[in-house]
Specification:
alpha/beta; six-stranded mixed sheet; six-stranded parallel sheet; 26 strands; about 15% strand; globular
Length: about 1000
Amino acid sequence: MNIVKEADIEYGFVGKLQDLKYTYRKDIRTKDALELNFRQKFEALNRVKLTDTEFDKLLTEIVNPDVFKTSNRLRKKNTFIREDDTPLHYTLVNIKDWCKNDFEVINQLRMNTENSNHRYDVILLINGLPLVQIELKTLEISPNRAMQQIVDYKNDAGNGYTNSLMCFMQLFIVSNQSRTFYFSNNNNKHFAFNADEQFLPVYTLAKEDNSKIENLFDFADKFLAKCTLGEMISRYMVLVETEQKIMVMRPYQIYAVKAIVDCIEQDRGNGYIWHTTGSGKTLTSFKASTLLKDNDDIEKCLFVVDRKDLDRQTREEFNKFQEGSVEENTNTETLVRRMLSTDYADKVIVTTIQKLGLALNQNSKRNKQQKEDNKETYYDRLAPLKDKRVVFIFDECHRSQFGDNHEAIVEFFPKAQLFGFTGTPIFEENATYRTIEGKQASYKTTEDVFQKELHAYTITNAIEDRNVLKFHIDYFKPEKKVTVGDDLHKLAVAKAILDKHDKATHHKRFNALFATASINDAIQYFDTFKKLQAEKLKEDEDYKPLQIACVFSPPAEGNKDIQQIQEDLPQEKADNTVEPNKKKEALNTIIADYNTQYNTNHRIADFDLYYQDVQTRIKDQKYTNADYPHKNKIDVMIVVDMLLTGFDSKYLNTLYVDKNLKYHGLIQAYSRTNRVINATKPYGNILVFRDQEEDVNKAMIRFSGAKIEKAKEIWLVDAAPKVIEKYKEAVTNLNQFMEANGLDCSPSEVSNLKGDEARAGFINVFKEIQRYKTQLDQYTDLEETQTETIEALLAEDDLRSFKSVYLDTAKRLQAEQNKKGDNIPEDVQQLDFEFVLFSSAVIDYDYIIGLIATYTQDKPSKHKMTREELINLLGSSANLMDEREGIIAYINTLEVGSALDEKDINTGYQKFKDEKSAKEIQTIAENHNITEVSLNAFIDEIMNRLIFDGEKLTDLLAPLELGWKDRSVKEKGLMDELLPLLNKLAQGREIAGLNAYE
């Protein structure tokens, strides 16, 4: 098979760009040539001639290591003071009409030749500025590895991204010709590719029907046509002020914005956008509304949300994208004033449907006194807007009270255009369904209200794009026959949750919601869990209880905030009309338990603060237990209606369901679990405790538009037998791989693999075993025979040993990647180690310290391990990779019978580490003929500031009185020895400036 060489792809691609009317500048290969070209373009655009001094000063002003600042400068008019003190108002590109800029292509640019070995494959210049970088690969690259290589380039000394015009880089494109990805540049905070948190969203281009455009040359036609690229950078990138972060919109978001803007410009009536839950609707609607700000034909754009908490949440989201872009309107009076205001700042308003309803109510503010005073109502005051063009954008446009307000809006604003966003449209089938146990509710269909679908991006599309996860559904079958809803049923459900929770949430790495059918059920479950866990603690003092909390709205009793919240909580609203005092009393107890558990002081009177705290804790699952102790977290959150729509947390992976859900209510609730993080969360886990299979099937058919078998294939992960087969195949592949290398398939033999290419082969083969094992570990419905099959394929002890060997091998190859870059075999270059697959929610520092303490005791314990087992366990998790060697060395100094507690172990281990570091420092000082005191002072300064200063290194070696050549050699030798020690002392924190020596 002929492999197409990278140079050939590059040659063809540059030719393609020339076809797209880019000017090929093969003369621009250096920093000087890049700057000269930019100068010519800048002077032509701004009709000015700069002196050399002025141009140098301009470069000094605009070149900035902060890509967020340079991105702002790129999009704005700026001012520069010339030599004669006169101001020059300039732009870097033609920001009014990006199509009129000069578009050029360069290749093999080399920056800072004296420091850097990097040549950049292809760069697109707009008006002389390098704004898009395309890196070409020949292998079937994984997007993770492609991104990692860009990150490596940015971290490399002398790369040019911080000290040259390369600081204006906006977009990166990575392609191996058949697969192409794009993503935005960012400052290091948002551009540190991290296995635990995938900070870099990577996108594939798609057509309007969401079909992929992956071939590089097709991608160029669709994305890199000059005007399209200009529009992409100027209109469809968002600079998030509060986070100092650059976002590029996904294809479906762009199509939705274009569809709304076109519909308004052509005055073509209403429309709706069907974008599934979790697809970033707020960003899409924000971009649409801000683009409308500059449309002079539009008087106002109102972004209408429901419920007080959504109002706050959406306002915060909008203000995150652009600070101060949306003011809070705390009451209807403020809303009416802002609607009548002619200020540009008041053109886009975020409000709730409730306030809008009050403003358009003809009887609002018209009591007896006001009639006598002849005071105008809100309705009367808004009369000047009646004939104006007003745009309404509705977020989640099917709240229960939407229909009541829709007619009032259309009647009052005959020229209004209404646009709705929904993740779950209302069709004929789901226009009527039970919202409250025993009661029917009806909705208008989405089409009745909004006329036509403008763009669709369904859950099917999102799953295929891996923007959301598939689901694993476990239908619970109790051992004894029970009646759904009775006490025995609830007891069986509570016991099942306690049994399955660890498995479902990957040992509490994630957390769960528990959806119950009524407030009474929620209260009963809260009490049942409390009793069951107290019994478990009596039986086993080592039992670690789940942290279980509960939230439902209290009786409103005239409280407008609660009334507003309950308008979208039909079950809770109805429940609170029956025996309200009992509900209140129970909620008081629940909140009191919560206050004791989490050391808070919430009250029913400030219910919203309690509700916010609950949400924050569910989201704060993201911290490791070392950063944020497990005692602060919530494992299971019992709810009735709350949190089942509009609530997002990547760290929520499980939904327990003991209520009847249907159609859009079912999809919304299930979708709480399927936000993407990384490989440790392969799917959203749903455990259903009622006979809901038919309802689930109907919902999947309706919202995927496919027949049930196809719908299941799209929405659901493979059933256990299928995954076990894949696991078996992966284990067989490992056996065959080891045999092909003339070795037995055992962990100890991996070290005998010859050469890095063979080791890379082992990484790729074993990684697949771990991927399927991670998936199976979270299946809650495995039968005993299936568990036995999994164990028989690869015994737990062997698996652990293989994981340990994997991590050792991966660390070694990663060091090779970092050290040699492109000068290693391609299959080693392209390795993506996916360390996160090997991280453990259980095996953290505290857990290991506890096991070591148990190991030193004389008395028997079921948690006691031998020295070998401890070391093996420690080696099998990526969590403690940097600490592992030190802990193992420390374990080897301990004796069984010394009976140390955890405090003793912590103190002893810290002392052991300090002594070890002191010895290392002494050895390094002796090796390099410098004093221990000066080396210690040098290290202390680095650790105190977490900054490496090259000048201090020169000072450290000054007493040796070396010439510059000898000093360079000495510096390198010293830093080679110091680097591992500094990284160990930093304990995962970044030392600024150190990467120049890595």
